[in-house]
Amino acid sequence: IKHNVTLANLSGVSSRGVIDDMREMSVANDYRKKTNIRASSVYQLTGNLSGGNQQKVVLSKWLFADPEVLIL
After folding, report:
1. Strand 14-15 and strand 18-19: pairing?
2. CB neighbours of 65 closer than 8 A, spacing ≥ 6?
3. pLDDT for residue 72
4. Separation CA 64–CA 9 (nearest Å)
5. CA-to-CA distance for 50 and 34, rounded, in angstroms?
6. Which of 5, 23, 51, 59 lies 20 to 30 Å (CA to CA) from residue 66?
């Protein structure tokens, strides 16, 4: 989950090209709570989640990317 949520906005969790693991975990946990993703941790593989929770991970990824327009 952690990598999927931050994938569309790596600049939001990195500095000088190096990903900050703690920042990535913090962002993933925040979005997991905001979108109510039911998973044991942010380390759980997205493919092992239910379809609805997989959709929430994708939604979280694009919300973190902070787009000007989000078409659902």
Report:
1. antiparallel
2. 8, 9
3. 84
4. 7
5. 17
6. 51
Amino acid (1-letter code) at residue 56: K
What pTM value is reported for the model? 0.90
The CA–CA distances, whole Å, from 22 to 2, 14, 18 equal 11, 10, 12
As given in the structure block, the two tokens for residue 9 are 């906005």
- pLDDT tens, per residue, the chain with 72 residues: 999 999 999 999 999 999 999 999 999 999 999 999 999 999 999 999 999 999 999 999 999 999 999 898
Which tokens belong to 48? 């092992």
Alpha carbons 57 and 62: distance in angstroms, whole number? 9
User: Max Cα separation, the chain?
Assistant: 35
**Nearest 5°: CA angle at 42, between 38 and 46?**
70
Beta bridge partners of 14: 19
